[in-house]
Amino acid sequence: MSEKFIALRRQPRIDESARTHAPAEETRAALVAAAPAATMPERLADLGLTPVQPCEEAPGIEHSFEALPYLDAYVVKTSSARLERSAKDLLAPEYLIMPNLEMSAPTPARGKDYVRLPDVIPQWPALSGIAEAHRQGIKGSGVTVCVLDTGVDADHRELRHKEIDFRYIPFDAVAGRMRDCRGFDVDGHGTHVAGIIAGQHLGIAPDVDLMVAAVLESETLKTSLERVVTALDWLLAQFEIEANRSKPVIVNMSLGFSRRTLSKQEYQTVSLGMKTMLDVLTNDFAVLPITAVGNEGPGQVRAPAYFANTISVGAVGFDLTVAEFSGSGISPVTQEPEPNLMGFGLDVISSYERDRKNRSHYRALSGTSMATPYVTGIAALYACCSHVVQGPALANRLLQSALPLPTAPLGRTGAGLARFTKEAIQ
């Protein structure tokens, strides 16, 4: 059986001074211009590996590699120990070698199902600032949000008003292909997340440009590092279009992994790799990742939520009580307390699925994977007010404007509840 590994560039392609002083659009333009100039694909091909494109099917190829030029990464697949060794020797000086790690999303608790949108539905509380933002016409316009999840039902009542840029990321880039098609979701989790962010009636930021990559399998909510890096490279490819280079971009991820499933050596390698990947997103491309801290409760935090270049999110109820399942603890990487922020994540009603009569169903779900898109939506409201506020600057705005929760248990809520305030944009 062919084994896969992932290679991620060790060093940033743009030096720190250029990143600090140049506008995001200039840095993004420079990075996408440099992507096609890489010579590594030719050198891997010279070893006997066949290049495979994410959007093409190439079944029967046993020894292959997939180049992800924008993330500057490679997925290598071979059953030959000799070829694997040669490829790793070639890549290792410049790239970090990682296993094709299994990842998963925290499983939410399911609540009541609604055949149609309830007449009286709990709205986002006034203290969230969402209603006030909408009254001012602030609804996320000009901001791109990319959701990595189970998919999205693009024809659900909440989402059919949008043209959603959707890709299905296959298990195997060689046997399958990345599908550009009408968004679908056989689970409902991704549709629920998308509705919280951008739903027409319930969404926090209904005017965002929505991208959705289906990377999580519906039966298990599991995925692989290969599918995640492929999805992120697809996201970064949007900067090939000049009009997209100045747009604020936010990535919503509920997926992650626990250090308990890895050996010490594997954990060290994977940690460095995840940090590298997040650094590329945040430092190079000014993309803000917002991630779920997990549903394992106090003392447990999932990666990548505990890395420095993400906003980690825990869950509170509409009464601001911390959910029992909401993860928290000290990051093994930064030694800082997690989560960074809280979002509403108990009995959140959002879009879910359609039945065979084409009726749009809604469902109440509870989990940090519901709280995360709440924070993503708030971030989009801030970002649409000023396109200068991107990446780390956007993260700081979220943290500085949060509502403190002083009565919550110590170490459970970070800076507090994410919210939109007029003062933060003045």
SSE inventory with pairings:
Layout: E1 3-9, H1 16-21, H2 24-34, H3 40-46, E2 50-51, E3 64-68, E4 73-78, H4 81-91, E5 95-99, E6 102-104, E7 109-114, H5 130-135, E8 144-149, E9 165-168, E10 179-180, H6 189-198, E11 209-214, E12 222-224, H7 225-236, E13 249-253, H8 264-284, E14 287-292, E15 311-316, E16 329-330, E17 337-338, E18 341-344, E19 348-354, E20 360-366, H9 368-385, H10 391-400
Parallel strand pairs: 2-3, 8-11, 8-13, 9-11, 13-14, 14-15, 15-18
Antiparallel strand pairs: 1-4, 1-5, 3-4, 6-12, 7-20, 9-10, 16-17, 19-20
Helical proportion, percent range: 25-40%
Q: Provide mean pLDDT, rounded.
A: 91
* Total count of strands: 20
Helix/strand/pairing class, anyone?
alpha/beta
Task: State the shape.
Answer: globular
- Count of helical segments? 10
The side-by-side strand order for the widest beta sheet comes to: 10-9-11-8-13-14-15-18
Strand % is 15-25%
- Main pleated-sheet profile: 8 strands, mixed
Straight-line N-to-C gap: 58 Å
Task: Write down the Rg.
Answer: 21 Å
> Which residues form runs of ≥5 with pLDDT under 50?
none
Helix/strand order: EHHHEEEHEEEHEEEHEEHEHEEEEEEEHH
